[in-house]
Amino acid sequence: MPTPQERLAQLRGNEDAPASVASKYNKRFRVGVIGSGNWGTAVAKIVAENCLEKPYLFHRDVKMWVREEEVSDMKLTDIINSYHENVKYLPEVTLPFNLFAEPDIRKVADGADLLVINLPHQFLGSVCDQMKGIDFSKSSAISCLKGINVSADGVELLHDVVEKKLGLHCGVLSGANIASEVARERWSETTIAFPLPSWYQQGDADDNLIKELFYRPYFHVQVSDDVCGASISGALKNVVALGAGLVEGAGWGDNAKAAVMRRGLLEVIMFGNVFFPGKCRPETFTTESAGVADLITSCAGGRNVKVGRAFARTGKPLEVIEKELLNGQSAQGIITGREVMELLTATKKEDEFPLLGAIYDIVHNKLHISNLPERIAD
Amino acid sequence: MPTPQERLAQLRGNEDAPASVASKYNKRFRVGVIGSGNWGTAVAKIVAENCLEKPYLFHRDVKMWVREEEVSDMKLTDIINSYHENVKYLPEVTLPFNLFAEPDIRKVADGADLLVINLPHQFLGSVCDQMKGIDFSKSSAISCLKGINVSADGVELLHDVVEKKLGLHCGVLSGANIASEVARERWSETTIAFPLPSWYQQGDADDNLIKELFYRPYFHVQVSDDVCGASISGALKNVVALGAGLVEGAGWGDNAKAAVMRRGLLEVIMFGNVFFPGKCRPETFTTESAGVADLITSCAGGRNVKVGRAFARTGKPLEVIEKELLNGQSAQGIITGREVMELLTATKKEDEFPLLGAIYDIVHNKLHISNLPERIAD
User: Fold this and answer.
1) The domain over range B4-228 is classified in CATH as 2.60.120.10
2) Which reaction does it catalyse (chains A, B) (predicted)?
């Protein structure tokens, strides 16, 4: 028996009906979304809106993988599909009818031409495992993941993890995008770095494809080629935002917060230079939405600021604060801060990143915040 | 008859008593401050603190020129000298006893080795006129001025105006420095660009002198050589902050504000490239306190944000808002925005600076703010 949403979609017409406008590409793209948290759902809404508006480019229906959970006495997928709202992670925002919550990840991934991957960093490994064996040789992905992977082998960016684990060509979307604002269609910019895969042939796609999928009147897209820079910036700004929250919690004022953000920007640029030499452009950090603008908006009032602020005020362990404040969501700056410190320690480069080190020491090693200015003094 | 403050200073000892530590320079420097507004008084406090602490480098007493005015039934200079507080422009902050308010500008300027100039842009011309004829051939100045001068001859930076009008070698201090926070000794950073004057000889001074004068435990100084970049950034960030205020007033959220700040940073960099080619370094804008950090703190909550916010909410003329909100202080973004637009129009470069143009059109030409995103879209 079809679900109410499937029935509604049927009633609204055949999603694969021939489009009245010819596509400029060889085929229509089927889009899937992996992940349905706050940001995951907001981005799913964007792509579903565009798939609905541009039947000549995209298949109408978009499946979004939802890690099944119960909310009150209903499954979250059933709630989303019946009420068009992700009441748990993006409440009070109506989702397009052509966005389908799907608990079986393989049903989303298999057959998708373009996969939007948008998960908390810590779930990436297991989620990739669940998609193992799917043939992605003619698919592409856009990673909205924020983080880095550090191991004995060194540091990996998360879009590289996707490429390696799944053989799935992967770009990056990152920008000044507080999810709740984007979801409410308040004007934002973003950066998408998506070099076309080498196996694309004439007519398969061009640089404009990705803009067609993500651009909305309220969501402006800058296309970049710096996958590495966008990825690093998106990961590390969360650690800087944790630091900005510490400064706020200590009651130090806007000058101090700006000083931490400035130093943070410098260390993000340096992180790129030191660990990915020649692979990212400094301008990405200083002039793109994925760079300085994301840093600014994340430090203005994202989850990491909230956690840092509460830590400075209460001294409670970060994980406790995260649970108390974030309703099941995670503050990625905590986990990324740990990975960064592991990397800096292993490579003996702590001294080159005094702000990142000081933030770590404040939240994990009982360093008093009053030491911060001297630690990061030029 | 000595004033109470002069008497106090006498009682505290001879300000020119030999210092117990030898100076590394050929002589002690006498420091004067021109300007006593909010920021003027805050910086005067800093230099007076250092002059008091370092008698081997500086003469103890610092004169600050105050444009005389009555507050209740007292002269402002008398209030400052009797109560050590600038009740009009920096209330509730105690000033060092060795900082003297002086209504006669020539008594401050004449004989000063280092002059800190800190005025609203619009008073610079007449203030320079009042100092005409003074021999500044062996003096130097630090400009804390924010603005540009546009005329039929083109655009001038304000420290250049000082140099030309007075024959006074002039550097620039600019940074993420909301005055009230600095005055309350909340940690801040700043950038000082002060190339030594060509006539300095061995032992006259070195690059450290300026740090000795301005560095405080709560006020960290980065020394730079980019006078031009620091000056441009300090001027134009006020216009961007006006734009950030508009976005706030329209209720658009942090992503939108970050987008405006990002675009603003780009246009500030471009302004340097276009109008002062080869004279400033892009890194000043993106990595110094005078650059991105000042932009951030100014857009967080300075005077220009307040004015922009109120304009978006009420539509009242800027000058009316300025009077209502700022207690006699000025929002420099208004006047600088006008100068910038005059320059862009005269040089037919409006199209290259869409954000600066849009901000001007919104506040002066009834452009609705809803047009802003399209106007600045890449």
Assistant:
1) no
2) sn-glycerol 3-phosphate + NAD(+) = dihydroxyacetone phosphate + NADH + H(+)
